[in-house]
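[Discussion] Sanity-checking designs against the backbone

I'm trying to build intuition for which residues belong where. Below is a structure token string of 339 positions. I'd appreciate it if someone posts a full sequence so I can compare it with mine line by line.
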């Protein structure tokens, strides 16, 4: 029964995410935002929300609904760290493979012609802020200092959003012309767009609530730590399917949207959810959690180095993320065997 609950909750989360993304892209067009802002802020946050809801519900459930705080903390921290790790490694790998696979139909061939300024800023923010997050998890801090650190992370993300919206990033293709839940042939009014955004958020929250329940029950049944399940399963099931938006955008030569969808989500996932974890969980990093952080920073550093070079974006730098993800999977399997 728990497995069915897990599957149904994931389906609900992903369906709601698709509705959210559709509406948020239309909203971006109506607000006259550039491709860089739509990809790195609106689309990135939209596709990042499913797995963000999981630690939010887990942590708040422990605070207000009487959930087991230890299990909820494991699930929350695992999901929080798993998302930026997967984005920096496996999502980059998929983007690189897609660009190479579609090279013959792409106008730019193997070259990725994105707005480098937006992507470089995204990765730079990610490297600094995720390093700060890791440092907080290694050094015991009093609660008031952890609150200050959490506030700093959220404020840093706000600054990032302001810079990204100000710069815009130019235009790249067209946003969706039809709102998914607006069945009239007439253009959807603003209230319908906003309503789809809010409604999809509510469904995601409910889906995340049942996902947390299912993860707790399955971890107890099979004897695998809930934190390990959430570190691997939650971002893989909720983040990765939405990142195939990037594959479609690469196929259409919309490289700024494609890479911005990933790099913008990396900034969001290394700040807002981390701030929640720092403030409301013990946030003590070790073992696989710490290993995932190190691999994410290594992969992000390679991409940042590539972006700073005065030459076309090199696909092998993106594909190398897959190797780092494979290294982590092997380490995770070894950990389970040793339990």
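Best answer:
Here's mine. Compare freely.
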């Amino acid at each position: 029964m728990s497995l069915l609950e897990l599957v149904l909750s994931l389906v609900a989360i992903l369906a709601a995410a698709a509705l959210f993304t559709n509406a948020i892209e239309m909203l971006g067009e109506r607000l006259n935002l550039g491709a860089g802002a739509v990809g790195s802020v609106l689309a990135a946050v939209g596709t990042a929300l499913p797995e963000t809801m999981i630690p939010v519900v887990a942590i708040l459930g422990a605070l207000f609904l009487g959930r087991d705080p230890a299990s909820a903390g494991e699930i929350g921290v695992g999901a929080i760290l798993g998302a930026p790790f997967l984005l920096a490694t496996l999502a980059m790998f998929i983007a690189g493979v897609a660009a190479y696979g579609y090279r013959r139909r792409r106008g730019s061939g193997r070259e990725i012609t994105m707005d480098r300024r937006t992507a470089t800023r995204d990765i730079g923010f990610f490297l600094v802020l995720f390093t700060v997050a890791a440092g907080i998890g290694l050094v015991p801090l009093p609660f008031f200092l952890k609150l200050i650190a959490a506030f700093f992370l959220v404020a840093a993300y706000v600054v990032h959003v302001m810079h990204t919206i100000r710069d815009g990033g130019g235009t790249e293709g067209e946003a969706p012309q039809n709102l998914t839940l607006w069945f009239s042939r007439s253009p959807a009014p603003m209230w319908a767009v906003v309503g789809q955004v809010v409604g999809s958020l509510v469904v995601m929250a409910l889906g995340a609530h049942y996902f947390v329940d299912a993860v707790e029950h399955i971890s107890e049944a099979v004897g695998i730590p809930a934190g390990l399940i959430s570190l691997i399963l939650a971002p893989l099931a909720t983040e990765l399917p939405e990142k195939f938006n990037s594959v479609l955008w690469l196929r259409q030569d919309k490289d700024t949207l494609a890479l911005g969808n990933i790099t913008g989500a990396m900034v969001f996932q290394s700040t807002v959810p981390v701030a929640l974890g720092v403030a409301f969980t013990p946030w003590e990093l070790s073992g696989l959690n710490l290993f995932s952080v190190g691999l994410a920073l290594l992969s992000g550093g390679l991409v940042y180095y590539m972006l700073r070079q005065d030459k076309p974006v090199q696909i092998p730098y993106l594909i190398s993320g897959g190797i780092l993800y494979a290294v982590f999977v092997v380490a995770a399997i070894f950990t389970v065997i040793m339990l």
